[in-house]
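Support reply, case 0932

Customer input (verbatim):
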Amino acid sequence: MTDFAGRRPALGWAVHLAALVLVVAWIVPTAGLLVSSFRTADQIATSGWWRAPLAAEQNLILRAAPPDAQRRHDAGFAIAGNLFAEAGLEPATVLAFGVSSRAIDDHAPGELAELRDGEHLSVAANGDYRHDSPVEMRGTRGQRVFVTVRTPPRFTLDNYRHVLRDADNVEGMSRAFLNTLTVTIPATVIPILVAAFAAYALAWMEFPGRALLIAVVVGLLVVPLQLALVPLLRLHNEIGIGKGYLGVWLAHTGFGMPLAIYLLRNYMAGLPRDIIENARVDGATDYQIFTRLVLPLSFPALASFAIFQFLWTWNDLLVALVFLIDSTGETTVMTKSLVELMGTRGGQWEILATSAFVSIALPLVVFFALQRYLVRGLLAGSVKGG
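Our regenerated output:
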């Protein structure tokens, strides 16, 4: 990379380093979220996501079978079985075990642990145990055993099955995913269609007040949308479109229109004037010029705004809370569903991680599909003007 004089810039390394830091800072949390979405709750609680490919040590509290499972033998009574099978757990390797909470790893696999009244317990590396007693054992619960195990790396799709099960599941994301698509797609397409016509008129059509309209559009870019939420909601309620999809579509359209018009107008104004004038000389109308010349040539700018509008609408919570008031969950979007999951399932990180990754999966696809147009559209729209 060289500067305008043909020399390498002195701080070129700093630019590359900053770009690398930004890329890593963006990729690492996303990768962690993806890996965590395939892990079980126990794995997430005992080790970080970066240790997912490695075996992990874990402390478990299990119980042997109750006394009614004991069998008599020559030396007394005994209970035998497998700790993992009886607890419904996957097989694991026992590293140590104990019979007291103060010494959970006091014994190695195969050793005898002394209990009360001459009883003793042994646990093998595969979880097989034997509880012996010289007299008949009493009680209703089996002996408590603390085991330290090494679990192999394991990934599961159960989290996704739970989160993405049928749309009637109030704890799932299927309905919220469809609701978010219902909000996002029209709220992205409508502003582009309206803004494209307005941008062409402000860029290539002469009419009184054009400069004033451009100034108004630029001024609207800095107006916080929070100022318009309550008045707009009251207007929607008065005309009967509040608390529904139509109201939220129009709200997103209105809030996204200034940026769309500004971006598209600057890009269209930078198109070669000769093309437009030649088309007019050949008898083309403004509508024909707009649909056959300007729109195809403005695709990078259209794609740039589509990315911004899609991501903003998809990740929106405030507008959805205001304009989609629904106590039944029929119109709940994914951002609101995630907030509710954090409140009801704050300890189930595997469900939260899976739900969060589901919510970012589609925006990632949209971004990577259109990102080659993003820089072209933004740069052309920012440096060209007419």
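We compared this against your earlier run and they match. Two observations from our side: The longest helix spans residues 349-383. The first strand starts at residue 56 and ends at 63. Please reopen the case if you see a mismatch on your end.
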